[in-house]
What we know:
By secondary structure, this protein is mainly α. It folds into two domains: 1-102, RNA polymerase sigma factor, region 2, helix turn helix motif (Rna Polymerase Sigma Factor, Chain: A, Orthogonal Bundle); 104-197, Arc Repressor Mutant, subunit A (Orthogonal Bundle), CATH 1.10.10. It has helices spanning 7-20, 24-42, 49-66, 76-94, 97-101, 108-117, 123-136, 140-151, 156-163, 167-196. Helix 4 (76-94) packs across helix 9. The protein is elongated and about 55 Å long.
Amino acid sequence: MTPQPDPQDAADLAQLRAVAGGDRAAFEALYLRVRQRLARFLRRFTARPDLIDEVVNDTLWVVWRNAGNFRGDSKVSTWITGIAYRCMLKALRGQAPADELSECTLDAAELQQAAAAQQEGGPDSELRDWIASGLRTLPHDQRVTLELAYFLGHSCEEIAVIMDCAVGTVKARMFHARVRLRSVMPALGGQGQRSQG
């Protein structure tokens, strides 16, 4: 049985084809539809709103210029996320990458923002902090791979497109990240329990 095409994918493709034809209204609609999703994704790299806005705009400028080059090897949303990922890495290289890349989106400022958005003292906040601590121990590529898979719901094939690597590389990163998390998470949980006691 052949899987039915996703209506959202078909709509994205039709809109991208219109953009490739120079349709400014289609580009504006695409921009408005993907801008928030891209901003959420990019917050995994930096907490700086100005840099996020700059990268979103750079990404969509690349989409505008290259819409006609989309080959259809992936979903349109995956293609755009891949462009955003590469634009963010380029922006971070031009800035202070050691500072930016050493902190994932789950740094102190963003955890405070996330906590403010949810009820304080809720049972999920401790779990979120514990997971954030574990993710911070991972190398950048492994952390981003897990976030793309588990937080953003991308398949290994989509992650390979986004990160411009082989599917086997994605699977290896996931394997090594899980092994590392298995070894560090119990200690991180124990530290949190000792500090409360």
